[in-house]
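[Structure tokenization] protein backbone as discrete codes
[Encoding] learned vocabulary of local backbone shapes
[Protein] chain in single-letter code, fold in tokens
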Amino acid sequence: MSIDIELAVNGVRQRVSVSDDDLLLEVLRRTGHTSVREGCGVGACTVLAEGRSVSSCLARAVRYDGVPLTTADGLADDDDDVVEQFVAAAAMQCGYCIPGFVLMGHELLAENPAPSRAEIAAHLEGNICRCGTYQEICAAIEATARRRQADQQRRSA
């Protein structure tokens, strides 16, 4: 049985037909959102639903009817501070897991603008990087937090 839902991804709304058991990951990829990747249990499928991380490979699409979703495709093309710090820290090798880590970084920094290294590691715990760039990923998120704090101090001065 097919149900029409409104998929609201990266600020764009569209009607799509889904079945009760279609996974959000499948529907996102079918509608062209290729930064969301299948990789069961590694976090590559992470999206933000109203700012909260969701493993789209485990979520039924019908639950996200009209819910604002953000994928890595929806981040600013040339002005995303988390992405900039990932590049500066060389926090990627193959890049497969990076969209999920970037989104998790955004989620963490929205919740905690000054996380410790231990808090960063705990927040990212469910994501797996097979290339082993955890230290660089954590460093990138720390650098983003410091940069945001410095920018805020400059604006306040």
